Amino acid sequence: MHKHRTRKIFQRRMNEGLNIFDLIDSFSLDYSDIEIWVSDDRSFYLDYLKAIDITEKQDNFIKAYKRHLCNVSKACRKVNIHRSTYYDWKNKSDSFSNLVDSAREEMYDDIESILLNKIIVEGNTRLLMFYASTRMKDRGYGSTVIVKGDNRLIQGYSNKYSGMTIEQLDSKISELQDFKQ
């Protein structure tokens, strides 16, 4: 009974126009509570959609988008909308756009967790090298060198020495050491 009463009070405050995210915090709820209420009570679901400023069709799209691993074409087909409708919603509704972006970021987080598991637990060195070259450029990994200075970002290829012999590399190192002194 307590959860039912809490839901009714929450719904009333939501309908008064209070920020839903502030309400979630003030009621000490987590999103699983909201998901249960949304699935159990159609009137709560419709009020919730109104509070987060999206339509039921947009919500169905977001669910399909997540189910189809953020594939826009498949999600559009699933909810029977044209792809241009998706872009129209994305351009005109900040709420919809933020939810789509959030879904994509969640997928990226999941992918990154899988990659890290394969690197750390399974010891996959190929993935480790790929991950380091793409995500750890600021630490010197990868095929590009990033130089930051004067509020500019300059990228250049670091493999310009890859075709040199050991003797040529030694000579270049000596030049640089002489230049440094």
Describe the structure.
69% of the residues lie in helices and 7% in strands. It has a domain at 1-52. The chain has a two-stranded antiparallel ribbon with strand order 1-2. Helix 1 packs parallel to helix 4 (42-52), helix 3 (31-40) packs across helix 4 (42-52) and helix 8 crosses helix 9. It has ten helices and two strands, in the order αααααααααββα. With 181 residues, the protein is mainly α.
Write the layout of secondary structure elements.
Elements: H1 2-15, H2 20-26, H3 31-40, H4 42-52, H5 56-67, H6 72-79, H7 83-92, H8 94-120, H9 125-135, E1 144-149, E2 152-157, H10 166-180
Helix pairs in contact: 1-4, 3-4, 5-6, 5-8, 7-8, 8-9
Structure described in brief:
The protein has 181 residues and is mainly alpha-helical.
Structural features:
about 180 residues; mainly alpha; two-stranded antiparallel ribbon; elongated
What sequence of helices (H) and strands (E) makes up the elements?
A: HHHHHHHHHEEH
By secondary-structure content and strand pairing, the structural class works out as mainly alpha
Sum up the overall morphology in one term: elongated
Mean pLDDT: 84
The separation of the N and C termini measures 79 Å
Count of helical stretches: 10
Overall number of strands:
2
Which stretches are poorly predicted, pLDDT < 50 over at least 5 residues? Answer: none
Main sheet record: 2 strands, antiparallel
Radius of gyration: 26 Å
Organism: Nonlabens dokdonensis
Protein name: Homeodomain phBC6A51-type domain-containing protein
